Amino acid sequence: MPKAALDSFDRKLLTIVQHDADLTAEALGERVGLSASAVLRRLKRLRAEGVIVASIALVDPARVGKPTSFIVALEIERERPELVARLRKWLAEEAQIQQVYYVTGSADFILIVTAPDVEAFDALMSRLMVDNPNVRRFTTNVALGVGKRSLFVPIPRDGT
């Protein structure tokens, strides 16, 4: 996918809306030096171009039952494209799997998983192994605490 052409206004907007997507167009315009209508046009274009892929609410886990976070390293048997594609689809469809990274190193995938408890996590991983025979094994780290939780993408000012 080609890199989007972003000017300094786009870059400022992207940085601001990553911190607070609820700001009004007027408030955003004041911060970046544009009219509200110009801000709305830019945000619409950034969404249409796939630069902004979603505007979401970040939920505090402690307020909704404090689920446990697990960092999982998956190893697969074969790197055949159709098998990897099937596994990726399965992982993407599981709500408890928050993030999936296809990586280099001893693991093939790193997953960030949230579950209400260890039993629910164990059930998910059992289904993973049954439904995906191409998964050789997995190792799990349980997060004891969270020092930072973010999906913020730093936007370079100069376009590099």
Automatic annotation (TrEMBL):
GO biological process: regulation of DNA-templated transcription; response to amino acid
A Pfam family hit: HTH_AsnC-type
Gene3D superfamilies: 3.30.70.920, Winged helix-like DNA-binding domain superfamily/Winged helix DNA-binding domain (1.10.10.10)
GO molecular function, one term: sequence-specific DNA binding
Domain HTH asnC-type: residue ranges: 6-67
GO annotations of cellular component type: cytosol
Source taxon at top rank: Bacteria
InterPro entries: ArsR-like_HTH, AsnC-type_HTH_dom, Dimeric_a/b-barrel, Tscrpt_reg_AsnC-like, Tscrpt_reg_AsnC/Lrp_C, Tscrpt_reg_HTH_AsnC-type_CS, WH-like_DNA-bd_sf, WH_DNA-bd_sf
Annotated keywords: DNA-binding, Transcription, Transcription regulation
SMART domains referenced in this protein's UniProt entry, alphabetically: HTH_ASNC
PANTHER family for this protein: LEUCINE-RESPONSIVE REGULATORY PROTEIN, TRANSCRIPTIONAL REGULATOR AZLB
Name of this protein: Lrp/AsnC family transcriptional regulator
Source organism (scientific name): Sphingomonas cavernae
